[in-house]
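PROTEIN DATA CARD
Card holder: Isochorismatase family protein
Chain length: 185
Origin: Actinomadura physcomitrii
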Amino acid sequence: MTNTALLVMDVQNMIVDRFQDDGYLPRLARAVDAARDAGIPVIYVVVGFRPGYPEVHPRNKVFGPMAERGFEPDEASTAVAAAVAPRPGEVVIAKKRISGFAGSDLDLVLRSGGIEHLVLTGIATSGVVLSTLTQAADLDFRLTVLADGCFDSDPEVHRVLTEKVFTRHADVVTVDAWTKTLTGA
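Structure generated from the sequence above:
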């Protein structure tokens, strides 16, 4: 059993549709396929609220407007993008705030599975990836970030985070470099 898990975070249709990078989903799919082939669990972290959004406070600048836009569970817009969608039996964690740990049972699932090393991917680099990385570092997880497995609407913010900030807490590599370590190629 591996002590590593690949986290695919906020790669939901409504979020993916806001960004333009035709190479992102195929690149991320390579990472997901490589993890599965290596026996590494793929865990999906998604934004998920109950109908009526009882978890969303109107003062929350990020999530407050979602109640007006529609972000109901079980809608096509909130599903994980088809190119990287979970297979039956893969864990999907619903979170209530930006970090994958906030309002979710992510820590419980990871610790119950003996996971000590997290490989982070997702949208956006300055949102879920940054918040989850910071909390995971505080929880003493070993961390790897797949720089091109993350995406942000601001390329400069993405660059600064992956080249200067994340390196304080994690190994930062490309999808291709990471998949090569799994295959020994």
